[in-house]
Specification:
- The structure is a single chain.
- This protein has 370 residues and is of the alpha/beta class.
- The chain has 2 domains: 205 residues, Rossmann fold; 156 residues, Glycogen Phosphorylase B (Rossmann fold), CATH 3.40.50.
- The chain is 44% helix and 16% strand.
- It has 15 helices and 14 strands.
- It has a 7-stranded parallel β-sheet with strand order 3-2-1-4-5-8-9, with helices on both faces. It has a 5-stranded parallel β-sheet with strand order 11-10-12-13-14, sandwiched between helices.
- It is globular.
- It starts with 5 loop residues before the first strand and ends with a helix.
- The mean pLDDT is 94.
Length: 370
C-alpha cells in the first residue's frame, strides 16, 4: 500500500462505520470513529458522544461537541453517516460541518437510509413498486412517514442535506433505494459501495438444543414497527405458527442491546426483516453471514446493482401479510429436502462475495484516492 490515510468516520447506523473502520485498519489505515453507538445498540466507537435526556443533557452534549471540534483536524478523509451526524438540530449542525470542512481534507456523505432524496423520491408513486411511503397502490400514512415528510421536505433537515450534498466531494449509497433516489440530482458525485460485514467476527448459527423445528426470528422496534412493516410480518408469522404448531416457532425480540440480540439470533434458522425494502440492510446481512435465511427485501434489481449473476439466497416478499405467509410456507415449511440448507449456504457466500468488510474497505479507499 502506497498511502496510509488518516480517516474520521462520524456517526453510526447499525454498525456500518464501526465495521468499516475494522476493514480500513486491516488495510493499514488510521481510523477514528466518533458516534453515540447508535443509541441503545451501543456499537463500538473511539470517541463517545452521547446525549443524555433533558435540557441540561442537551447543553452538556453541545459543549462536549464544541470541545471536540478543534481536535478533529488533519484527517485526509471525513465521512458523515448522514447530514444529521450529531444529536443536534439541523440548524446547529451546519456550523459543525463548515468547521470540519475547513480543517480537514476530503468530505464524503453517506446515504445509508433516511435522507432528503429517500423521502423525496419515495413520495413519488412511480419511483418504486413499493416503499416506506407507498404500498399496494396506496399512500402509507403513519406518524413516522408524516414526520419524515415534514422534516426532510419542508424542514431544516432537508436544507442541511442540500448544503452538505452540494458541497461535499462525494456521496456513498449502500442500498439500491438510496442509489436510485440520489441519481436524479447527484449522479456526478454518487458512488455505490455495499455495506461491510466482518465475517471473521460472525458467530455461525447453531441449532437450538431443545427445539428441532424451524425457528423464525423477528426483531420488533417499539417505535417504528408500523413504519418498518414489522407489524404485518409478525401477524403473518403468528398465523403460520397457529397452522404449523409442531413445525415452527417464532422468536420475537423487542429493542434489546446488540450482544443479547445477536445471541438470540444465533439459535434461529430464519430472519424476517424490512418488509418495504428492495435490499437487505445491516440486520439482514448480519443474519445471512451467520447462515440464517433472510425473508424480506431481495428484489432482482438489487442483485443487478451488485453484479451478482447466480446467487439468489433471499426469499423476497411483497408487502402483504398473505405474500409473507405464502413465501415462507412454500419456500421453507413445505420446501423440498435440502432447500433450506442450500439457501443457508448461499447466504454466507453472498456475504463473502459482496460484503466482506476488507473488500468493502478497499472500495472506499479506491474512491477516496480518486
Amino acid at each position: 500500500m502506497d498511502i496510509v490515510m488518516k480517516i474520521l468516520l462520524i456517526g453510526e447506523y447499525s454498525n456500518v462505520h464501526a465495521t468499516l473502520a475494522e476493514g480500513l485498519r486491516a488495510l493499514g489505515h488510521t481510523v477514528t470513529v466518533l458516534s453515540n453507538g447508535d443509541f441503545w445498540k451501543n456499537y463500538p466507537r473511539d470517541i463517545d458522544l452521547v446525549r443524555t435526556p433533558g435540557h441540561w443533557g442537551g447543553i452538556r452534549y453541545l459543549l462536549k461537541a464544541y470541545a471536540w471540534l478543534p481536535r478533529l483536524r488533519g484527517y485526509d478523509v471525513v465521512q458523515l453517516i448522514n447530514p444529521m451526524f450529531l444529536e443536534l438540530k439541523a440548524e446547529r449542525i451546519a456550523s459543525f460541518y463548515r468547521q470540519l470542512r475547513r480543517q480537514n481534507g476530503r468530505m464524503f456523505l453517506g446515504s445509508f437510509g433516511i435522507d432528503k432524496p429517500w423521502v423525496e423520491e419515495g413520495l413519488k408513486p412511480e419511483t418504486f413498486l413499493y416503499s416506506d411511503f407507498y404500498a399496494n397502490g396506496e399512500r402509507r400514512h403513519n406518524a413516522f412517514t408524516e414526520e419524515m415528510e415534514a422534516d426532510w421536505i419542508r424542514g431544516a433537515k432537508g436544507t442541511l442535506f442540500d448544503r452538505i450534498a452540494d458541497d461535499c466531494d462525494g456521496i456513498v449509497a449502500s442500498l439500491y433505494e438510496n442509489y436510485v433516489c440520489c441519481q436524479p440530482r447527484y449522479s456526478g458525485k454518487l458512488h455505490f459501495i455495499p455495506y461491510p460485514i466482518n465475517i471473521g467476527k460472525t458467530t455461525p448459527r447453531q441449532p437450538h438444543p431443545e427445539y428441532g423445528g424451524l425457528r423464525i426470528f423477528i426483531g420488533v422496534p417499539r417505535e417504528r414497527s408500523v413504519y418498518k412493516g414489522t407489524d404485518v410480518m409478525l401477524r403473518a408469522l403468528q398465523r403460520l405458527e397457529r397452522q404449523y404448531t409442531d413445525r415452527m416457532e417464532v422468536v420475537k425480540v423487542e429493542s434489546v442491546p446488540f450482544p443479547i440480540y445477536q445471541n438470540l439470533m444465533n439459535h434461529s434458522d430464519v430472519l424476517v426483516d424490512q418488509l418495504y425494502s428492495y435490499t437487505p440492510a445491516m440486520n439482514g446481512l448480519l443474519a445471512m453471514s451467520k447462515g440464517l435465511i433472510l425473508v424480506g427485501g431481495g428484489e432482482e434489481v438489487h442483485y443487478h446493482l451488485l453484479q451478482e449473476p447466480e446467487l439468489r439466497p433471499i426469499i423476497n416478499v411483497r408487502p402483504t401479510e398473505d405474500d409473507v405467509c405464502e413465501q415462507i410456507e412454500k419456500r421453507l415449511l413445505l420446501a423440498a429436502p435440502g432447500e433450506r440448507e442450500r439457501l443457508s449456504t448461499e447466504s454466507v457466500e453472498y456475504i463473502r462475495r459482496h460484503h466482506d468488510h476488507v473488500k468493502v474497505a478497499r472500495q472506499y479507499i479506491d474512491l477516496w484516492e480518486r
